[in-house]
Structures are given as structure tokens and as C-alpha cells.
Amino acid sequence: MTIDRIAHVLIHGRVQGVGFRAWTHHQAELHGLKGWVRNRHDGSVEAVFSGPGEMVEIMLKACHQGPSGSLVQLVEPVEGGDHDLVDVDGFEVRRTA
């Protein structure tokens, strides 16, 4: 897989308790992306998507909708850092941070 783009985002709204992490994991795998997703103590969801630019863009657009039951208010980019992708094979769900 060619990694053309890495996107690190925070997703705000009603995004916990609605299966957002499982949905994100499934969608990322369907699009052949690497990275991770986790809940945050502030009620948001944090995710990193890595892969072909067009697939990352499709995933980011999907995150604006989310799974049924969610109500996404904002998908906010996070700037800087290596996005903790060094030893990630595939896409994983991480513990709450």
C-alpha cells in the first residue's frame, strides 16, 4: 500500500456510545487504510488514517456522517506529530485516552 496521506482528526458531537469506533474500524479496513481510532475522555473520538490520498479523503468524508445514531458536529484536523503510526499493521481500536 502506498501511503500518500496521513490524517489525524478529532471528531466531536454524539460520537461515543453509538458504535463509532467499531464503524470507523470497519470503514477503514474496507478502504485499505492503516491507523487507529479511540475514544477520548472529553467525549470526542480521535483517529488517524493513513494510505492512498483518495481513500483517506473518502474516509474523512464518511466521518462527517458516522454510523447511525451518531450526530457529528465537527471533524477537526490535528496538526503535527508522527501520529503514532510507527508499529501499526492494519487498523486498530485503541483504549480511551
From TrEMBL:
Molecular function as annotated in GO: acylphosphatase activity
A Pfam family of this chain: Acylphosphatase
Reactions the enzyme catalyzes: an acyl phosphate + H2O = a carboxylate + phosphate + H(+)
InterPro entries membership: Acylphosphatase, Acylphosphatase-like_dom, Acylphosphatase-like_dom_sf, Acylphosphatase_CS
Record's keyword annotation contains Hydrolase: yes
Family per similarity comment: Belongs to the acylphosphatase family.
Annotated protein name in UniProt: Acylphosphatase
Organism of derivation: Microvirga guangxiensis
